[in-house]
Amino acid sequence: MKTATVSSSCFHAYTSAFLQYPNHMKPAISNSNMKSSKFNRNVKSEIEIRVCVNKACSKQGSRETLEILSGISPPNIIIKSCGCLGKCGSGPNLVVLPEGVLVSHVGTPMKTAQVLACFSTAKENDPQNNLKSLALRKKADAELDNKNYEQALVLLSQAAEIKPFGGLHLIYKSRSSARLGMGDVSGALEDAKKALNLAPRFTQPILFAESSRYLSSLSAAYICQGDAFLEMEEFDAAEKSYSSALQTDPSIRRSKSFKARIAKLHEKLAAADLP
């Protein structure tokens, strides 16, 4: 088993969260190897964090932990839910793969952000900034729900200016919707493209405000791009974006809002007398 090394700041975050390891994969952590600047990530650049959402951990707040991680994780860290990790009395629990590091008592937003920061390769990975940005985006999404596009745009721009080490693709996705609502079609398209370029393989679910349902963040970004193309009457590009959204998340086929988009596209094609 490879030796896991952590920085002193990360080690403090782990111990404050009561770091635990399964006996069959216990790595060695000692004062001598704590000088390493980062956890040993040489084996695999992309890591995966799985959060237990079984009954005991859910009661201790693991679903909130999962939501926070999904909202602030960078592109190289995949966030997923999982079943019981065997530490039911120490939840919420999560495991970091491929190292197999089990972290317990991750029950507050700050501890959640600290654990994520320890495994991030970003140069700027201040957990507090990440949480500030997340809070601003949540406020903005509430404004989007109420069609307060200008206020949402202000909040999302503030969130982007913080430069969080994760979650930027979600900020740009939401800002694309705000700009489209204000009639800034070119700005909406620009932000949708930024969201796609930042995290082209992001598939973890988010709540899409317009339809009040969960779908992959990548699919949501494709939908925003398609909406912008549709308003620009670039119908081929809009159809391609919607098709990409459907390929990424086939479940949206049942969504009323997605069906309405496709119907609107067909109406515009018919009005323009295009096949």
UniProtKB/TrEMBL annotation:
This is Uncharacterized protein. Residues 132-159 form a coiled coil. TPR repeats lie at residues 219-252. Signal peptide: none annotated. The keyword Chaperone does not apply. Keywords: Coiled coil, TPR repeat. It comes from the Eukaryota.
